[in-house]
Design a protein that fits this description.
- There is one protein chain.
- The protein is an alpha+beta fold.
- Helices cover 39% and strands 14% of the residues.
- The protein is built from three helices and two strands; from the N terminus they run ββααα.
- The protein has helices at residues 30-34, 37-41, 45-64; strands at 8-13, 18-22.
- The chain has a two-stranded antiparallel sheet with strand order 1-2.
Length: 76
């Protein structure tokens, strides 16, 4: 596993849905941060560089192990 990718724990299917159980990550949603003008204004450039770097390293790792992903986005 990669440290910047949430761990898969379990999956199950109901009559209407396929469900994934993933590791809980503290800190909130990135989508919420970028859509809150006040919170986003407090994010400095080093933090943005760190977040972007983590995303790039995670995607690079996925490509390196031939992991197929579909969409990478903040909200479905």
């Amino acid at each position: 596993m990669h440290p910047n990718i949430v761990s898969y724990l379990h999956s199950f299917t109901t009559r209407d849905h396929h469900c994934l159980v993933l590791e809980h990550v503290d800190g909130g949603e990135l989508f919420e941060l970028v859509n809150d003008d006040v919170a986003y204004a407090r994010v400095d450039e080093p933090a943005v560089r760190r977040m972007w770097g983590e995303l790039c390293r995670a995607v690079g790792w996925m490509h390196g192990v031939n992991l197929v992903h579909r969409d990478i986005k903040l909200e479905s």
